[in-house]
Amino acid sequence: MDPSVPFIIIAVLFVALALSAIRIVPQARAYNIERFGRYIRTLSPGLNFIVPGVDRVNSKFDLREQVFSSRPQPVITEDNLVVNIDTVLYYQITAPKAAAYEVANYIQAIDQLTVTTLRNVIGSMDLERTLTSREEINTRLRGVLDETTGKWGIRINRVEIKAIDPPPTIKEAMEKQMRADRDKRAAILHAEGERQSRILKAEGARQQAILEAQGDQQAAILRADGEAQAVERVFQAVHENDADAKMLAYKYLETLPALAQGEGNTFWVIPGEFTEAVKNVTHAFAGDAAQATPSTEKEQPERTGTEQRSITAADPGRSTSAQAAMHAAEAAEKAVADARDDVRRAGDARGGPTPEPRDGDGG
């Protein structure tokens, strides 16, 4: 037997004993060490030494934040409706010793604690509040869980409601309600649009009417100003040219037919000044003829038409002046007859009765 063999065996045993005394802990990990079944210490990340055959690693923990997703749990709301709620927890082990020795299975403990807390929270809410108060539910769950799991060496960082599933009948009712709300909002928006459209159209019509009225007003003012200037110029021309009574009476007779041309004139009364105008024309023409006769004829009294004709036949020497006077009277009567015919035709064109002349005293 080779004397070096025992030394080799001793060396191998020593190396194996040394290796069993070394423990390398990865980063963000923690190992709990027991000696003879009693907790001694927790190994931190890095190189660590233990007593071989005496110390042993009881449990290993991951100190990073972890995610735990629970199964959907049936929960009854305050209005006696069953909903399935699925939650997600984010937790982290802060005390490996407490997590190993204060609770047997911290995952199961967290799951059951979450379910019971969730039922207590949801039981005090109705369905509508449950669906719209997720942030409130998360905050209350996190407060209860963090307070309870603190002694287990676990910190609850965040709790999220992943899904809330009401019964199928409730889903159908909610869909109908949402559809009705959308239809209501659409009808309201359509009505608002119609209202705004009508308001804008009415405002536009109002502005149009105002502008048209202002335009008509300006046009009427301009027309009135033009007529006033025309009348003023005629008045000035008459006074500057010193028009005699014959010209004024003739213009008066010439203007009478235009009085019947107005719109809506179905009855027209010839003013009493008509006879006076005819007399003025007659006297004007008679005056021109009288100026051509001797002064002895001017002093004779006024005679009727029959007497004038008799005098003319008896005295041929005065036939020239008498004929001039007769022609003037005939011209005046013809002018009167033409004026009456024009007035009658104007009345017939308007569809009204034939106007009747009246003299100055209303006869």
UniProtKB/TrEMBL annotation:
It is found in: Membrane. Residues 287-363 are annotated as: Disordered. PROSITE patterns: BAND_7. The keyword Iron-sulfur does not apply. Keywords: Membrane, Transmembrane, Transmembrane helix. Residues 20-178 form the Band domain. The keyword Transmembrane applies. One of its GO terms (cellular component) is plasma membrane. This is Paraslipin.
